[in-house]
Amino acid sequence: MLVAFLLTLVAGGATSIGAALGVLGRGTSPKLLAGGLGLSAGVMLYVSFMELLPEGVRVLSGGVPDARGTAFAVLAFFVGIAVIAVLDRLVPSAVSPHEFAGRMAGSHGEAELRAPDEQAADRALRARLLRTGTVTALALALHNVPEGFATFVAALQAPEVAIPVVAAIALHNIPEGLAVAVPVRRATGSRAKAFWLASMTGLAEPVGAVLGFLLLSPLLSGGAMGAILAGVAGVMVFVSLDELLPAAEETGEHHTVIYSLVAGMGVMAVTLLVL
User: Fold this and answer.
1) Buried b / exposed e across 252-273, counting CB within 10 Å, b at 16+?
2) What pTM was estimated for this model as a whole?
3) pLDDT at residue 116, as a whole number
4) Cα–Cα distance for residue pair 264/259, rounded to 1 Å
5) Which string of DSSP letters, residue by residue, matches 21-37?
6) pLDDT of 37 over the 60 cut
7) What average pLDDT does the structure give for the chain?
8) Contacts of 114 (CB under 8 A, 6+ apart)
9) How far, CA to CA in Å, does 63 sit from each of 30, 159, 242, 263?
10) Cα separation of 120 and 111, whole Å?
């Protein structure tokens, strides 16, 4: 359990890398951002369909896959998708990192062109950016809670799968940190505030792991564990299709996204074969 928690902490802690990029004023090129998000989606999709869902079927079938176990696993898979979809609708939508970078670059240029007698307008702009950054931080933190639990469960049940999963989630947490840090730094002028607020969104993942374990620890065995694994696969598939790939496509680097997606699947396949 300690190793599983530490791996979840590492995944969430990657948000601080994006936060650091944001406060240092060093952006991420569209191609690099597209590649990272596409790679992350490929890893998560592959591990969901080739490891977590089949493992859920095996556990629910009592060791040898059968029709009954498969049916329950498929049901749990779509329940996982439904749960994360409902959470996604309830939580305010976060603006993509790429869109944030564009907005901030434009806002910065506009602010430099303002005359001294328009300082009030600049203060209003800063207030809007601070509000946007804060709401985005809250949205990302809430989205990260189920991701943290998914990582924790994967590490408990299948340690050989956990490291690639951690790498995938960590990759897509980097632009999340950037998305929060850039507007907050622009609004407050404080690198420290921007860094820590962005980093706090990543800490929601280990919090999600702890809360999930405390609430569901009686279920982390037997058939219930199989259902949880299948449900976690559903969560990862939804996150990949609803968040990672759309955000990657917004960079305008379509081919980079697809090549990275396939590369992510290939890396995951080779890793599992070697392990």
Assistant:
1) ebeebbbbbbeebbebbbebbe
2) 0.63
3) 53
4) 9
5) HHHTT----HHHHHHHH
6) yes
7) 76
8) 121, 122
9) 45, 18, 33, 31
10) 11
